[in-house]
Amino acid sequence: MWLFCYNTRMRLDKLLANSGYGTRSEVKELLRQGRVCLRGETVRDPGLSVTEEMGSEITLDGQPIIASEFLYFCLNKPDGYLTAMSDDRLPCVGDLLPPNLKTKKISPVGRLDYHTTGVLLLTNDGDLSHRLTSPKWHREKAYLVTYSGDELTDKERVLFESGMTLMEKGHAPEKLKPARLEILPDHQCRLILTEGKTHQVKRMIAATGRSVEALHRERIGTLALKEGQMPGEMYALSEEDIRLLKEEN
């Protein structure tokens, strides 16, 4: 995590606001209500001089804060939401952010289709977002696929693992990188890709004469949903989560 420089002093309300806990005025209200503590002692002075290093000793409603200029969240994207921060017609993932984060320039990394669910990374770290969406980034992305048609067989597994070529009407042949296919019961499979072409999973399944009925992204590299994480819920990435994402890249 890229944190503020150690020993750089700033006002407490600024540190909390920069870390995504509200606007300066909202943070001042949290302090006025006695919800912020430093080393177990209630703090009400928004102008208290603190350093980022002291962030581990600051709590909000009894929970340690995450003092960081950049914010990282893993959202379980629900069905029926656009991967966008705002839209005049349809629900979008930006609607799921709490009010205190809406001013932090957070945006989704990559895109999931309107009906696709699962892991979606949200961050205001522009450099990392750019790197993770670059064609040079080849981290695994695992999808749980529910499909209609005949049950998949080893024939399709070998086809995907060899790096199939999509032959679509009106388009030039498109060679894909090798992908892993795990065939599961009840017309489900797990497809693990290392690239992210437009509608790639649906196009690969369609090329075998079948149709995708439901699509759920289970992980991006090591980034996965927490146990019991419901659609629309998100969690803040730990320093270890972020380190792994950056190292994978």
Give a summary of the structure in a few sentences.
This protein has 249 residues and is of the alpha+beta class. It is 20% helix and 28% strand.
What would you say this structure looks like, in words?
The structure is a single chain. The protein is an alpha+beta fold and 249 residues long. It folds into three domains: 9-64, Structural Genomics Hypothetical 15.5 Kd Protein In mrcA-pckA Intergenic Region, Chain A; 72-135 and 222-248, Pseudouridine synthase I, catalytic domain, N-terminal subdomain (Alpha-Beta Plaits, 2-Layer Sandwich), CATH 3.30.70; 141-220, Alpha-Beta Plaits, CATH 3.30.70. It is 20% helix and 28% strand. The chain is built from six helices and 17 strands. The chain has helices at 12-18, 24-32, 126-133, 154-161, 200-207, 239-248, and strands spanning 9-11, 36-38, 41-42, 49-51, 58-60, 63-64, 72-77, 107-108, 117-123, 141-148, 165-166, 174-175, 180-184, 188-193, 211-220, 223-224, 234-236. Strands 7, 8, 9, 10, 13, 14, 15, 16 and 17 form a nine-stranded mixed sheet that branches. A four-stranded antiparallel sheet has the order 3-2-5-6, with no helix packed on it. Strand 13 (180-184) and strand 14 (188-193) form a beta hairpin. Helix 1 packs across helix 2. The chain is elongated.
